[in-house]
């Protein structure tokens, strides 16, 4: 009888538990990462909500951009493997693709996460870190933790319950607190102040810190609040008049060569092909929402400056690895999508990803200013474990995960030799507004191949495919699928489809995890 995948996974977890026991014994014998010399670095990751790659610049976030430009690295080809809030964050915390961690959509969100205790903060605790979360967590975590108690893995828990810029509730280490309408209650300020106090309290202590600062900004707020930004991102009152005249990113480009309000969508999947051109009224609303997002990011920039100042005050900046990213991109009229996310086009999946490593990691060799290799948010968890000293993705009680991502540390140290030359990253998303089943696709900096199971109206679905050559069509205006029969392009599409079918079942990375029967390794 063939071995079932779940049986192979159980064997893998047993192997991991035994390996973990040996790993923990080794330091007691005087050898191992914990005794390798330098003290483990603090790790800080700052995540924004719905920030696009185009919004990561010196005009919008001058301090943040300047910090990483002066002494850091920018990943020019970074994406998320599922471009919506909860599945993206679950992929980051598990280091796994959605088909392995269970979270494919915002609803049911956190409820669908498999092995909820066996995630990154628990692994960091096992590696000797003090862990802290500030801000927004996975959607619907309250259904599992209805009384404000923190999920496993967190020593400090200061987390939003309802998503508002004012008049919201936070759970603080098991106690629910309400914050009102005062300027000082603005959610970005509260999150930043809590993180700053934590650094001031623990930054000078020997035990390393893992800090996760998850902003709600610049996510739109659904409430009809008074002012210029009703039903949009709410800026800090300090920034009420910021970015009043900023144009949309593609404003002024030739309509025939831009994706904004795309002229011809007839070659897109049926749901998009039916969308009408955006009216002047809709474009006006899109412009308003865009400007409000930029204004909300001004508060994020001050927050980042405040946190860096706290690290400097405690003399811990020199031993802190710092990362900045977004949970997904967003559409501001591209492909006729006026207020959307979740789709696999460039504006939805590409995100800013910036990194700063301390001298204890880099030595005298500066990190590359720009890293062009294709990377994804599933690569962050293995990176942090690598920074912690090579600890496995295991809890102290022996639960382990097969990580689908790769450590970014070699790239940050200038070593590209072990990175896959032609890495394709899987993008997958559960049920969203337009499609009847999860879609999946393959992304690389030069091409996108995606399949949508599309409702044809009789209770069944048909597969619709899209294929874009981003070297020659960076705006993704021309769907090449299907290519002429017998052509080299058709052969390429067949290769991509076969790879996609395999990647939908992939698990782990070759050379790091043992193989599982009938489950190929991820790229």
Describe the structure.
By secondary structure, the chain is of the alpha/beta class. The chain folds into two domains: 5-412, Alkaline Phosphatase, subunit A (3-Layer(aba) Sandwich); 425-503, Arylsulfatase, C-terminal domain. It is 28% helix and 16% strand. It is built from 13 helices and 16 strands. The strands form three sheets. The chain has a ten-stranded mixed sheet with strand order 7-6-5-4-8-1-9-10-2-11, with helices on both faces. Strands 13-14-15-16 form a four-stranded antiparallel sheet, with helices on one face. A two-stranded parallel sheet has the order 3-12.
Please supply descriptive tags for the structure shown above.
523 residues, alpha/beta, Arylsulfatase, C-terminal domain, ten-stranded mixed sheet, disordered N terminus, Alkaline Phosphatase, subunit A, globular, four-stranded antiparallel sheet, 2 domains
